[in-house]
Design goal:
This protein is an alpha+beta fold and 175 residues long. The protein has a six-stranded mixed β-sheet with strand order 1-2-3-4-5-6, with helices on both faces. The relative contact order is 0.15.
Amino acid sequence: MSQRIEDTISRRAGVGPSDMVKGWQSMLTTLLARMQPYLQPGMLVTFQQLTPGEKTLFERITDILTVPEPVQGLYLPPSVRNQMMYTNRGAAIPEGAAHPADDGVLLFSLPSADATIVNALLAHSPHTPAIDVYQEGAMIAGYMFDAVDDMITALNGVIKTFLVAPPAPPSPPGK
């Protein structure tokens, strides 16, 4: 296993709910709730103002990805993230954020986004493209990929597994 993958695994959340994951899932839930009027079942949506590169990437994603109903998806590109975190608050964009190590995130949920969220990071090398699945403050699944296109292709199955046909709760012991 490469050192990069080992380092990524060691930084990831452990089994069960954690304060870090609860906080992250809460922030994603709030973002999805704010975007709810614009989200549509069976669609990936994004913002009106994208950079040319973000627009090209969004078109590539929609060519690869099929969002099944009732799932709804959001592409949050770096330019919008920078607006949310910096310029809309009157702050300058830090150098590191001006040239991000990713092309944004993809978020998927059912219309009631408080239960399960699929979060995909469109990371550039040397970072790792990854899909995390959050449920009730716990990371219930995590997948890492060598390439963003491989991750986007895999999203089709992850979305179906965790949002369209969610795993059944565990049976009580002895049944």
